[in-house]
C-alpha cells in the first residue's frame, strides 16, 4: 500500500515537473511567437513610414527591404508605360525633360488605380484563377473614385478585324466611356497604331474551335478579363463581321439606361432547338428549361458575373452538348432562362438576316450597302420593347459584313449612321 502510495507520489511529482516544464516551454514559445509577430508588425508598419525612423536603435537590427521587385506584377500603375498624360504635363511645365529622365518609374501593385482598372491586359492567370478573381463583387456601395460606367466591347475574332477603321471612327472621342477587349487566335498580333482604342487590348487568348465548348470558354474569358475593370457596366460580344449602325452616344445611352440585358433566348420546338437537348442533363436541366439563341449577347455586370461564376451548369453543357448541339447557342440562353430570366429582354441588339435559309446567315458585301439598306436595319418596323415600351430602335449592331463592305460603310457612316 505504502509502496504503492510512494510510487503514486513520485508519479505525481514527476507529472508536476513535466507539467511545469511543459508550461514553461509553452510560455517561452508563446513569447517567441508574440515577439516575432510584433516585430513583423513593426517591420511592416515602419517600412511604410519615411526613412527618418531608420536611425532609431530599436529598428537598426530589422533589415529594410530594398527596392521591391515588381517585375512579376500583373497590376501595374498607369505611368509604367512611360507615356502617361501626367508625364506629358510635366514636360509642358518647362525644363522637365531632365527631371523626367531621372524620375523612377513607379510600379505600384497596390494602387487603387491598378486594382480597379488594370492598365495592362497581359497576365498569366489560368481560366480558373481568372474567373475566380473576376467574380469578386464589392459589398460597399460607394466607389472611392469617380466611376463613369463604361461599355466593354468584346471582339471574338479569327484574326484580322477588317472593320477596324469603322469601329475606330465610331469610338472616336468617346474613349472615356468604353473599353475594348480582343480575343484572337493565340500568337496573332493585331498591328494597330498606338493611338487606336484597340492598341494593346488583346487578352491572353487560347485556341477556339467553332461549335465546340472552346468557343464558349473564349466568350467567358472575354467577359472575365473585362470584369477586372470595375468601371465596365455593360458587355457586348461582337465578331469581326459586326458593325455599329448608330452613333456612340445613342448606343451608350441605350445600353447604360436599359433595365434588361439583351440575350436572345427562345424555345424552339424543332430538332434545331429542343432536339439538341440531352436527357443526360437531368435532373439539373429539364427540357422546359432549354433555350436557344444567338451567341452575340449583351449583358450587364451582374449577369456577366453570374455567367463566369457558374461551373455546375456549364460543365453539364461541356459534357453533354456536343455536335449537333452547340454550347454557344444554348448555354447562356438556357442558364439565364433558368435563373435570371427577369433581367433579360430575350432579344438581341445585333441585327442578322436569316432569310436566305440554311445554317449560315446572309453576308453583305460592298454591292449590297446602300442608304436604304442601312435605314431598314436602323428603323426596323419589327416590334420590340425597350424598358417595357414599344420602340422602332431595336438594333444597335449588325452582321454579317464582308471586308469589301468597309469602304461604302465608311462613306455612309456620317450621313446615315451619325458618326
Ligand atoms: C518572377 O517569375 C519568375 C518565373 O515565374 C521566377 O523565377 C522569379 O523568381 C519571379 N520573381 C519574383 C520577384 O517573384
Ligand atoms: C504589359 O505587360 C507585358 C508583360 O509584362 C509587357 O510585355 C508589355 O510591354 C506591357 N504593356 C504595356 C503597355 O505596358
Ligand atoms: C504594322 O503596320 C505598320 C504600318 O501599317 C507596318 O509598317 C509594319 O510593318 C506592320 N508590322 C507588322 C509586324 O505587320
Ligand atoms: C447621334 O445620333 C443621334 C440621332 O440618331 C443624334 O441626335 C445625336 O446628336 C448624335 N450624337 C452625336 C454625338 O453625334
Ligand atoms: C424573358 O423571358 C423570361 C423567362 O425566361 C421572362 O421571365 C421575362 O419576363 C422575359 N423578359 C421580358 C422583358 O419579357
Ligand atoms: C448582295 O448583292 C449581290 C449583287 O447585287 C446580290 O447577288 C446578293 O444577293 C446581295 N446579297 C444580299 C444578302 O442581299
Ligand atoms: C426588318 O429586318 C428584316 C430582317 O431581319 C427585314 O426582312 C425587313 O425588311 C426589315 N424591315 C424593314 C421595315 O426594313
Ligand atoms: C461615297 O459616296 C459618294 C457619294 O455618295 C459616291 O460617289 C462614292 O462612290 C462613294 N464611295 C464608295 C467607296 O462607296
Structural notes for this entry:
The protein has 419 residues and is an alpha/beta fold. Among the domains are: 80-109, no CATH class; 126-352, Spore Coat Polysaccharide Biosynthesis Protein SpsA, Chain A, CATH 3.90.550. It is built from 13 helices and 9 strands. The chain has helices spanning 2-47, 85-92, 96-102, 112-116, 127-134, 164-171, 213-227, 248-256, 301-309, 312-320, 327-339, 371-378, 406-417, and strands at 150-156, 178-183, 232-239, 243-244, 298-300, 350-351, 384-386, 389-391, 397-398. The strands form 3 sheets. Strands 2-1-3-5 form a 4-stranded mixed β-sheet. A 3-stranded mixed β-sheet has the order 4-9-6. It is globular. The N and C termini lie far apart (107 Å). Mean pLDDT is 82; it is low at 1-9, 38-65 and 75-104. Bound molecules: 2-acetamido-2-deoxy-beta-D-glucopyranose (NAG) (8 copies). One 2-acetamido-2-deoxy-beta-D-glucopyranose (NAG) binds next to helix 13. Pfam families: Branch.
Strand content: 5-15%
Look at the helices and sheets and give the structural class: alpha/beta
CATH top-level class of the domain at 126-352: Alpha Beta
Radius of gyration, in Å, reads: 30 Å
- The spatial strand order of the largest sheet comes to 2-1-3-5
- Global outline: globular
Share of helix, binned:
25-40%
Order of helices and strands: HHHHHEHEHEEHEHHHEHEEEH
Amino acid at each position: 500500500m505504502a509502496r504503492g502510495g510512494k510510487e503514486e507520489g513520485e508519479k505525481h511529482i514527476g507529472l508536476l515537473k513535466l507539467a511545469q516544464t511543459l508550461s514553461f516551454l509553452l510560455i517561452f514559445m508563446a513569447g517567441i511567437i508574440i515577439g516575432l509577430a510584433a516585430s513583423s508588425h513593426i517591420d511592416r508598419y515602419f517600412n511604410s513610414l519615411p526613412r527618418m525612423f531608420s536611425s532609431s536603435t530599436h529598428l537598426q537590427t530589422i533589415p529594410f527591404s530594398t527596392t521591391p521587385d515588381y517585375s512579376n506584377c500583373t497590376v501595374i500603375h498607369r505611368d509604367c508605360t512611360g507615356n502617361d498624360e501626367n508625364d506629358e504635363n510635366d514636360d509642358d511645365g518647362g525644363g522637365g525633360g531632365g527631371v523626367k529622365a531621372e524620375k523612377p518609374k513607379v510600379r505600384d501593385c497596390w494602387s487603387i488605380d491598378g486594382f480597379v482598372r488594370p492598365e495592362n491586359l497581359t497576365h498569366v492567370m489560368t481560366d480558373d484563377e481568372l474567373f475566380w478573381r473576376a467574380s469578386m463583387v464589392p459589398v460597399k456601395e460607394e466607389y472611392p473614385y469617380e466611376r463613369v460606367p463604361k461599355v466593354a466591347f468584346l471582339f471574338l475574332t479569327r484574326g484580322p478585324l477588317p472593320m477596324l477603321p469603322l469601329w475606330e471612327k465610331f469610338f472616336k472621342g468617346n474613349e472615356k466611356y468604353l473599353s475594348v477587349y480582343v480575343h484572337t487566335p493565340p500568337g496573332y498580333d493585331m498591328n494597330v497604331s498606338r493611338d487606336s482604342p484597340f492598341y494593346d487590348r488583346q487578352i491572353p487568348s487560347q485556341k477556339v474551335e467553332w461549335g465546340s465548348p472552346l468557343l464558349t470558354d473564349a466568350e467567358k474569358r472575354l467577359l472575365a478579363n473585362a470584369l477586372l475593370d470595375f468601371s465596365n457596366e455593360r458587355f457586348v460580344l461582337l465578331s469581326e463581321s459586326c458593325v455599329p449602325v448608330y452613333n456612340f452616344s445613342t448606343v451608350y445611352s441605350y445600353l447604360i439606361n436599359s433595365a434588361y440585358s439583351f440575350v436572345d433566348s427562345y424555345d424552339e420546338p424543332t430538332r434545331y432547338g429542343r432536339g439538341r437537348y440531352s436527357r443526360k442533363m437531368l435532373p439539373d436541366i429539364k427540357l422546359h428549361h432549354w433555350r436557344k439563341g444567338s451567341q452575340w449577347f449583351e449583358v450587364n455586370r451582374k449577369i456577366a458575373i453570374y455567367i463566369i461564376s457558374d461551373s455546375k451548369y456549364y460543365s453539364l453543357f461541356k459534357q453533354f452538348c456536343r455536335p449537333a448541339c452547340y454550347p454557344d447557342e444554348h448555354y447562356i440562353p438556357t442558364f439565364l432562362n433558368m435563373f435570371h430570366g427577369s433581367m433579360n429582354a430575350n432579344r438581341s441588339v445585333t441585327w442578322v438576316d436569316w432569310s436566305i435559309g440554311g445554317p449560315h446567315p446572309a453576308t453583305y458585301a460592298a454591292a449590297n450597302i446602300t442608304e436604304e439598306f442601312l435605314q431598314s436595319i436602323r428603323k426596323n418596323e419589327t416590334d420590340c420593347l425597350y424598358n417595357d415600351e414599344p420602340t422602332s430602335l431595336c438594333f444597335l449592331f449588325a452582321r454579317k459584313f464582308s471586308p469589301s463592305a468597309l469602304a461604302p460603310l465608311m462613306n455612309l457612316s456620317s450621313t446615315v449612321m451619325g458618326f
